[in-house]
Amino acid sequence: MTDTRFADLLERVMGLSAASIGPGAIERAVDARRRETGLRDGDAYWALLQASSAEVQQLIEAVVVPETWFFRNPQAFRAMERDVLGPRLRADPQAGARLLSLPCSTGEEAYTMAMALMEGGIEPHRFSIEAVDISQHAIDMARAGCYGRNSFRGHELAFRDRYFDARPHGWAVRDEVRAPVRFAQGNIFAPGFMAQAGGFDVIFCRNMLIYFDIPRQKQAIAVLRRLLAPDGTLFVGHSEAGLMRAEGFVSAGMAMAFAFRRAPEAAALRAPAGPTATVAPPPRASLRAPVAKRPAALRVIERVRPTCPETTRSIAKTLDLAALRRMADDGRVEEAERGAQTYIRENGASPDALLLLGLISDAAGQGKAAAHYYRKVLYLDPGNVEALGHLALLLRREGDHAGARLIDERMRRQDGRRN
């Protein structure tokens, strides 16, 4: 019989779902720590874990494998400076900004946030960055601020000369980049986590939620919602975009940045992401939040005024796909769906049109239809990160964690190619 004690412990302590990384990864970490402590078997190591919080932390360290680099997914950092903080800080010389990197891993993301703002002409004393990670080892490395070749990827490395000093074994972050960043060890599931630290203008929380099961995702998102200022912006990973919509956040409309904002209070009603949950749908169906499961594929719960074929053809001809997507976001879901289908009939299949149909199906709880459309998008455009992200989240919701991990790996390869 498989010993699940260790996986259950890690799930309780840090929210880690064994299915998200594979049970083998936890088994290897447990075996490595058991041998390190000189214990003879799993029972002896389990007894040690029950008696030592320090050893629990060491097991967490063994499971957490950082995978990050400077300016990873640069679109997010550009959007943060260009569209979110830069305009406000340049317009008001007295204004400041508070940012959060969670999890911050070994510090590359937090320092990149500082460099991105400095590149936009924002002086370091005008912003502060809190950087938190569950791994004390990662925090120690971040504070040391010296990085090897693996932290610098891609071809655009001019920033290294501007913000780092060469050392015998790597590159050290300069003091002006360090100054606004403060690192701390912390666990988002700990009682009272950052209880007095709300009101962040920007939060980067990328590729953490995908490692949690649905209840823990909801718990973590509730913490993020509390920490985010009412007009703040939350940046997440590719795979997490659909989850944020499902939890009542709305897209900030920044291409490839995966940026979200809290929904207006009037739109706070939302359906849980779980497939078996039942709640009343919002007054108007929208891609911003899922609605109750519809009885047949490509139909929506909300009945809108019938649209005649001539009107549908007119919509498809006169509106581009971006307009059709806005139409869906505004609650005119059935019109947007018919417009996209007509667009495909008259212009041929395109990744954007198929993606829109996938999002509509996904929002209405039609997982099979949504997966069908997402896979069609990827057939035409294998690197479409939005389709990859939504498909990975859909697979996780349906329990196919192995399939979701394969999609995650595809997205990581895409990250490496873009950087």
From TrEMBL:
Source species: Novosphingobium humi
PROSITE patterns, sorted: CHER (PS50123), TPR (PS50005)
Keyword Disulfide bond listed: no
Stretch forming the signal peptide: none
Species lineage: Bacteria, Pseudomonadati, Pseudomonadota, Alphaproteobacteria, Sphingomonadales
Domain named CheR-type methyltransferase: residues: 1-241
Spans of repeat TPR: 351-384
Protein name: Methyltransferase domain-containing protein
BP term (GO), one: methylation
Key words of the record: Methyltransferase, Plasmid, S-adenosyl-L-methionine, TPR repeat, Transferase
Molecular-function annotations in GO: methyltransferase activity
Record's keyword annotation contains Nucleotide-binding: no
Gene3D superfamilies the record matches: Tetratricopeptide repeat domain (1.25.40.10), Vaccinia Virus protein VP39 (3.40.50.150)
